[in-house]
Design a protein that fits this description.
The structure is a homodimer of 391-residue chains. By secondary structure, the first copy, chain A, is α+β, with helices and mostly antiparallel strands. Chain A folds into two domains: 147 residues, Creatinase/prolidase N-terminal domain (Creatine Amidinohydrolase, Chain A, domain 1, 3-Layer(aba) Sandwich), CATH 3.40.350; 227 residues, Creatine Amidinohydrolase, CATH 3.90.230. Chain A has a six-stranded mixed beta sheet, sandwiched between helices. In chain A, strands 11-10-12-15-16 form a five-stranded antiparallel beta sheet, with helices on both faces. The first copy, chain A, is globular, with a radius of gyration of 23 Å. The N and C termini of chain A lie far apart (57 Å). Chains A and B meet through helix 3, helix 5, helix 8 and strand 11 of A and helix 3, helix 5, helix 8 and strand 11 of B.
Chain lengths: 391, 391
């Protein structure tokens, strides 16, 4: 009648370390309770990866309690008991009557729980920027005696510096990413439907690499082929590949919710002079950017190293050069862009995203996932850094 | 240098019909401009399916203009030109300087566009419930002379009744769903890793059926196997299937953003008496529910027909029996639940979702996607309505 704990991706001590960092930040912000509603932050603090975040749910981190309390829809509570490190009494399922109900929803259950914990008159942190206007209003209206503090990205900034255990998991994800790129090089051929190639590439992302399957979430993938190479976010089309087609591929293996993004450009046939020059400029820019990665450099330094080199080659890129990367793809904190003065520290991880969509109908992609080491950089992805010419 | 229009899933007249319905609703609500920010509603009104909604974007429907105006990140504009029915002058790409910028974001570009259109002092509809608190505040602060009206789900309610063209697309999606269920019955075997089965099932969802590939978005899939059958939303685990394992599978084929959900329960070995009785009760309940689907019945009638039958069999289900279904899986409007008095009309489509998570470690799933016809029901999914016993 009760569900067992499943195998855990991380030991309890790892979650204790993460929670200690969050509680220290809560102390600085003078709040006693923090409501975490961002799905990736919930994964980070608990190990939970089920796809239930389309209805309200909240993780309450309290300075008074060692373990956080997770309030979610009753039918999802067994997944939380199974997947997270917490004892079962810390998982509270709210009733179905709160689903599709115009008067009350799951946030009412979170607020009730806060009141039961004696936190309703204290300092309460909310991730306001990601929360709907309606939900934010409800917290304010139903907690009139609380001091509500915007804690958007408070946990997300802590996530930016990974532990060695997290880095291991991201290395596993990166091996899957590499395998999927190599599978793409095998299956992209003239006359093949994009969907048939995607089925194979996605198969590799799910089957994984080195005996470790891709886990727990449907992978991210974009395949933008001629004439769509000037844009980054089309999943795939109903078309077939043709002689002369260029294919821009972005994907990422996933382990326990952690990604490692990679982008490579493929070409059926021989590249144009412009594409080859752009590829050479981007490779040189990538190496220059990686060359300045070390503790003490800033995100801005990394981006500008890239921009300087490709400008020397006669090209420009108008978008940022990447972003903090980990659970759930993009961590909305540090960006590798001009003016972002975030200082690099050991075990920060980034997707160095050098996709360059120059014209409406022409772009090129190249990226790696890296971590900052004690003295420089470790590139986690390792598929050949080339323009894949296929026939 | 310019990108061409891609093949369109629907003719222009179909989008004109949808927009006319939206503009009629805008007239009733006395607003001159509607800002559509929900990704599925944007797909509905334009044909756009790229995955760019993680940064702000907005579709402005104005009573003064035949075509809507789509304001999105510059790098995503070519995808919008390629995928949508609108002329290119209606696609406005905003600059990269608005990405990762603490002071200004893409909603500032949407507001600038509204001002340029002369709408800043008129009635403006927003999908407030899905919009972040920060974004809602920005619209209110930067449009002090506008009358802002909450239009959450205004478009979504219009989507509930499909056209015959949309039904054709959902039939194609349903054929893909059926094929994926049959593929699952082939590949779920003792000793097989869940990830390897998922790779095959997802492969079928992407390759499609009857020569029509799954398109444009990564498919939805959940595989909850013993001991996880008491919960619905785990994607899959790192485990292997074992003799005696029960597997609850939910998935949906996708065509042009439209889904057709289906759930089936699989068992390696012979079912327990309890599981067999529950299966029989659920099948009888499913048939009873489908038996009352016709124009004029309510959502509540359908749900209660199901509840009555399974209670007669000695079971209960505490969650709703389904929801409006179409683009992007769940349409947050009508629910098949007790007390939802939404009246059924021809070409409404629902996911009749009879998943029943009874104990922490025991549940059962069964679902179909149906449409209301002129006199009754058409079930779009057609995989065998059985408990799949595998060996």
């Amino acid at each position: 009648m009760t569900i067992s704990k499943g195998p855990q991706a991380f030991p309890r001590t790892e979650y204790e370390r993460r929670l200690a960092a969050v509680k220290s930040e809560m102390g600085k912000r003078d709040i006693e309770a923090l409501i975490v509603s961002d799905a990736s932050n919930i994964t980070y603090l608990t190990g939970y990866t089920a796809n239930s975040g389309y209805v309200p749910q909240g993780l309450v981190v309290s300075l008074d309690e060692e373990e956080p309390t997770f309030i979610l829809r009753r039918q999802d509570a067994p997944a939380a008991i199974h997947q997270t490190f917490m004892q079962r009494s810390k998982i509270i399922g709210y009733p179905e009557a709160l689903i599709g109900n115009p008067d009350k929803d799951g946030y009412d259950a979170v607020i009730d729980c806060l009141s039961d914990m004696g936190s309703a008159t204290r300092g309460i942190g909310l991730e306001l920027r990601g929360m709907s206007a309606e939900a934010a209003e409800k917290f304010k209206a139903r907690l009139p005696n609380a001091r509500i503090v915007d804690c958007t990205n408070a946990v997300t900034w802590i996530r930016l510096v990974k532990s060695d255990l997290e880095i291991s998991v991201m290395r596993e994800a990166a091996s899957i990413s590499d395998a999927a790129i190599m599978r793409a090089a095998e299956v992209i051929r003239p006359g093949v439907r994009e969907a048939d190639a995607i089925a194979e590439i996605m198969g590799t992302l799910v089957r994984g690499a080195n005996g470790k399957p891709g886990t727990t979430r449907v992978p991210n993938i974009s395949l933008c082929s001629s004439p769509r190479t000037g844009t980054p976010h089309i999943s795939w089309s109903e078309d077939v590949f043709r002689d002369g087609s260029q294919i821009n591929l972005e994907l990422g293996g996933m382990r326990h919710g952690y990604c490692a993004g990679i982008m490579r450009t493929f070409l059926i046939g021989a590249p144009s002079d412009r594409l080859r020059r752009l590829h050479e400029a981007e490779i040189a820019g990538l190496e220059a950017a990686l060359g300045v990665v070390r503790p003490g450099s800033t995100c801005s330094d990394v981006a500008n190293a890239f921009y300087r080199v490709i400008e020397k080659h006669g090209f420009k890129k108008d978008s940022r050069c990447g972003y903090a990367h980990g659970i759930g793809w993009l961590e909305p904190t540090a960006s590798l862009k001009d003016g972002d003065m975030t200082e690099l520290k050991p075990n920060m991880t980034f997707h160095l995203m050098l996709g360059n969509w120059m014209d409406e109908d022409f772009g090129y992609v190249l990226s790696e996932t890296f971590r900052v080491t004690g003295s420089g950089v470790e590139v986690l992805t390792s598929a050949p850094r080339k323009l894949f010419e296929l026939s």
